[in-house]
Amino acid sequence: MITTTHPTALSATPTTTDTIPAQHGYSKVNGINMYYEIYGEGQPLVLVHGGGSTIQSNFETIIPMLAQSRKIIAVELESHGRTGDRPKELTFEQDADDVAALLKNLKIEKADFLGFSNGGTTTMQIAIRHPEIVNKIILGSALCKRDGVPPPFWGFMEHATLDNMPQELKTAYLKVNPDPAGLKRMHDKDASRMVHFKDIPDEQIKSITAPTLIIIGDKDLITPEHAVYMQRLIKNSELAIIPCGHGEYLGIKISPTSDGKEAAYVVPMMEKFLNKTN
Question: Domains, the chain, ranges and CATH?
Answer without folding.
Answer: 2-275 (3.40.50.1820)
